[in-house]
Design the sequence.
């Protein structure tokens, strides 16, 4: 009799678990954003939120973490129950690599499963339109040979932050003549160059369209020119100075869940993957994303994982520059 009771108990337990999987979600979902309100990650989350709400038929609560280049957000996200009710939206590359390799974050890149990277970006280096600099060569030569101290705005731990360190390192510029102002929000960083609070900025190109009339772009960090900006690539601009900088992907933004959630609740995970795929397949969504200058690619989990890990290995080779 006891064996029958135990068997019935486990059958009921499995039926309950199956029902729970099928009824997912049945309560609000937290959408954790790695940066503050107004930045690119936040804009991505807020544009996607109503479409997630409509398909999942549950409230979506956006939670922003502004400080420490997504480290606080990632730590909070991973501390939540791995049941699918918390989704992470951030600029994963380069910030996760930076927090792990430079800031010794208490997590690893393998703690995350990336549902999709939908927004890719390149960095630009720019000055205010009132600046006397019209080329990257002039800017760097002015610092090194004229000993003119200049200030740069970068997002802390960003690809732009690392690119700036590379420029200083490979051109052997004395650190005393450069002030690096670190920001945790793209909007405030762009406001700094717009208001002439800094001399130059290295930041993602998408989102910088909003201040296009206030800046003069000197170069783009890419293997090829970007038709939207019509400026030399950084290594074209550096050729007269006799050095080049290694290039890698700039910002990669999208959505992730905990790796343990993927393993623990495969049906819920598959459901979320299909939800994001359905959203990005909608014409109205693509139109909205284009109007907001936000990427809307679908590359899926497998390709997203590969790109993040490939970048992580590249960043690992250069992270020492950010420890100085």
Sequence:
């Amino acid at each position: 009799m006891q064996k029958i009771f135990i068997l019935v108990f486990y059958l009921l337990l499995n039926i309950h678990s199956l029902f729970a999987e099928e009824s997912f979600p049945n309560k609000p979902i937290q959408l954790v954003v790695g940066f503050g309100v107004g930045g690119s990650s936040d804009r991505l989350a807020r544009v996607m939120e109503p479409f997630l709400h409509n398909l999942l038929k549950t409230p979506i609560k956006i939670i922003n973490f502004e400080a420490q280049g997504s480290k606080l957000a990632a730590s909070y996200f991973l501390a939540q129950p791995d049941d699918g009710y918390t989704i992470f939206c951030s600029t994963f590359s380069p910030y996760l690599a930076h927090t792990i390799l430079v800031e010794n974050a208490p997590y690893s890149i393998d703690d995350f499963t990336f549902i999709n990277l939908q927004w890719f970006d390149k960095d630009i280096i720019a000055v205010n339109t009132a600046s006397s600099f019209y080329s990257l060569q002039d800017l760097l030569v002015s610092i090194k040979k004229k000993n003119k101290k200049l200030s740069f705005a970068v997002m802390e731990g960003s690809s732009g932050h690392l690119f700036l360190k590379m420029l200083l390192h490979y051109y052997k510029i004395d650190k005393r003549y450069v002030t690096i102002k670190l920001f945790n929000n793209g909007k405030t960083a762009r406001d700094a160059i717009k208001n002439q609070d800094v001399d130059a900025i290295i930041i993602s190109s998408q989102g910088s369209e909003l201040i296009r009339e206030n800046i003069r772009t000197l170069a783009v960090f890419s293997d090829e020119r970007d038709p939207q900006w019509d400026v030399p690539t950084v290594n074209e601009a550096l050729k007269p100075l006799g050095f080049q900088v290694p290039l890698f992907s700039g910002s990669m933004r999208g959505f992730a869940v905990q790796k343990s959630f993927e393993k623990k609740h495969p049906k819920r995970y598959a459901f979320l993957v299909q939800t994001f795929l359905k959203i990005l397949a909608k014409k109205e969504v693509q139109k909205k994303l284009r109007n907001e200058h936000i990427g809307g690619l679908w590359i899926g989990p497998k390709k997203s994982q590969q790109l993040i890990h490939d970048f992580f290995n590249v960043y690992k080779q250069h992270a020492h520059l950010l420890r100085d």
